[in-house]
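Components:
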Amino acid sequence: MKKTLLIALVALTAFCSVFAQAAQEATNDGPVKFSMYYSDNATLPFKENWLTVVEAQKLANAEVDWEIIPIADYSTKVSLALNTQTNAPDVILYQTTTGENASLAMNGAIVPISDYSDWTPNWNAMVEKFGMQDDIETLRLKDGKLYYLPSLTDVPFYDGGLILRQDFLEQYGFDAPKTYDDLYEILKKYKEVNPSSYPLTILAGPRVLYRMTMPAFGLSIGKNGAGGSRVLSWDYSNKQFFAAAVSDEFKAYISFFAKLYAEGLLDPEMADPIDGGIWSRKMATGASMATWAYYDQIGGVEAASEIEGFKLQMYPALAGPAGAHHQQKNRTGSGIMFPAKTAERKDFEQIVRAVDKMFFSEEAALLWCIGKEGVTYNMVDGKVEYTDEIKNSAEGIYKYMQLNYGCGSDVTQMIWVNSREMTKYDENYSQINAAVEAIGDVIQYIPPTPKFDDDSAEEATTLMTPLADAFEVWCDAFLTGKKSIDKDWDAYVAEMQKLGIDKYCALYNANL
Amino acid sequence: MPKVKDTSASSKALNVIIYAVMVFSLLICIIPFIYMVSLSLSSPKAIINNQVRLIPKGINFEAYRQIFTYPNFFRAYGNTIFYTITGTFIALCMTILFAYPLSKTYLKGQKILMKMVIFSMYFAGGLIPNYLLISSLHLTGTRFAMLIPFAINQFNLIIMVNFFKALPQEIEEAALIDGIGYFSILPRIILPLSTAAIATVGLYYAVFFWNDWFNGLIYLNTKQYPVMLFLRNIVNGTMVLGDSSSASTDTATLSISIKSAVIITSTLPIIVLYPFLQKYFVKGLTVGSVKG
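Structure:
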């Protein structure tokens, strides 16, 4: 009896394994299946039935198991997956190789995708089409390899900037401001008319103001400074870093804003994070009239304001001592990464090819940007014409397309063509962008990331932490007048030098 | 015996002060909550124009509609309820089963076990070792990752142990004499006398499982996420905006009314639970067990 049972069991096991193998082979012709991390933003919650999501999978003959992870916790989840390689997905969206990822890449946790460039023909073609070979070179790590497929932009666009109450400018006969001095005059006039107001306020906190205005003064430092060094900036003419936190550029910059603060022209509450609701309230009620923010935030405030004739307008970047510049932006953005574990899969090549087709092919570029012809738009005389439902939506084309079709999300749209993007915005926005483009070089590139090895990366971090902390404290003190820029500047420079800012700068330049 | 009523002026004054302090404390607790309710029900326009006080203005349910239509919201809510109920049940069973023997000083090795418990309270493994442990137990990606590793919390265990220690030894002796077996003493004698401790510890566990988002984030997959993870994402919406250096998806801000609605949605069920548990706190503490 026992023998019979044993034989039956062995036969069953053998049958099962043969059957499983057959099933495996059968799926080789079917869609390639893989899991993918997606960074989910609460303002644009992911939907598996979005037109783009469904169509992109069809396009690449893929079946994706989407792992939707809230954006606030995305880096934690990705870091755990890459560090432990357990429960990791096959593909990770919305990644770069700065910070921790660089050292993870160098330690073999991420697939060097440049080794498999034959499998990414669409991405290669787009890089060539946009002439971005040099931009891609800067993303290679110390070993000369590329560890992710970045998103590509043909011409970076001016999506946020100085926003002012146009009705106030018209009422008091001001022209559109061209320089920071022009802005000062406008703010001063507003304060004169509305003594209880703080004319300039900032959404989220000082770091937004700093990152958007510092480039016009020839620097970019602080928490959101371009390049992430916190106290160094890139000298665009000499192509190397300089100690911006102790430079004359910073002195001129902070003097200007300290003057605004001292005269009650800059909102003191911006030291606390000002959230979207409070910011809108300040603008809509006239407690403030100027801000730096993104274009698509204007509409909501205009609709909510009860002030008669209330009108907000975004203006091209103001000229400072270093010319008219806005926050730096790269033509490459966050992109797609493969954890090392994925390369062990037999169908790794199919996965890479599917991802390449799904996000970087011409069809995918159109799909993720403007949807599907006949569903979201039609071509009329070679121009994109959106359907009436989209054109007449209350949220505007861009937001409507995002929410209902998944078009235009930073996470999934990998190809950004400026002229195609402009079809989603109003005439006014296109004109501002045209004006910015006419000024030329308003949006500079983000400085290159130094190619640190583990030791120099650690040394840089050790130097950076106290420098960044000291900078934050002094910067706040200068801005709010707790420390005098004239009297205390030398003490500040001495402290920064004691903390090794020159050594830190030399370390950056040595590893370019 | 006639009821003694103190009617002196000083006593009355004291009463007034007591009531005033109580009302003041009550208001401190309740006003922010009412304000949240009011914000969550008001129109964005009224909020932006600073017209909302304690009474909602321009009443609408848009904020709640947005939360409830958030993809997978109800599945996540169901997950959280599951984790809270199952997690609390498992945790209570495990904690009681561990606490009871630890409360017996004559148990061999009791002191060492207790020291080990206290040691692990102060020195934990850290994120990555914990993750690797859970992962090597093949719990990642399963719902058990939310339940099993947190079945015994040292702090709650110590509360339990001390409570059991305080129960008179004589009851157990009497039970033994009356012929009840060793294994029946815990469920039939001790537990009915411990409702206060069980309610307290149970509530601690329930609140923990209800609020827990981090363990869900690191151990689970999307379909198993607790609702707190989504709600946290919504509340953090604008914070992320400040750190983002690019536009498009990150630029649209969520109104304060949605955040308020989130806070109400996430705290209300636990608040509702308190009155039902309150009677156990009082009863449990006053039940006498040994007379004479």
